[in-house]
Design a protein that fits this description.
This is AtpZ/AtpI family protein. By secondary structure, this protein is mostly helical. It is built from 2 helices and no strands.
């Protein structure tokens, strides 16, 4: 028993193992994917801007590339549904079921 006086909750790491594995690390994994898309976009498009700056003898394309990469990374994250909330509804106490309540009973 925990020493904090709280009852153990069932989850993916409890001995019963009745938790749904899809929700165990969804927030962390989605956060890392969003971070990767944004940082990767900034790096790639900054390098492209730096190359164009050297080619065209300008000094502002690297900054434009960084902004374009950040916007593109956020756009990719949004299109892959990584920016929405994946947590279950705390009011109902259960996880949402796809298609629940949409058909005739």
């Amino acid at each position: 028993m925990p020493t904090t006086g709280q009852e153990p909750t069932e989850g993916p790491d409890t001995p019963s193992g009745s938790g749904d594995a899809r929700y165990s690390n969804g927030g962390y994994n989605a956060g890392m994917a969003v971070f990767s898309y944004i940082i990767g976009g900034i790096l790639v498009w900054s390098l492209i801007g730096w190359w164009l700056d050297n080619l065209l003898d300008t000094r502002w394309l690297v900054l434009a590339g960084a902004f374009l990469g950040a916007a593109g990374g956020f756009y990719l994250s949004h299109m892959h549904n990584l920016t929405r909330d994946h947590t279950p509804n705390p009011q109902s106490g259960s996880r949402p079921t796809p298609g629940a309540g949409t058909g005739p009973e």
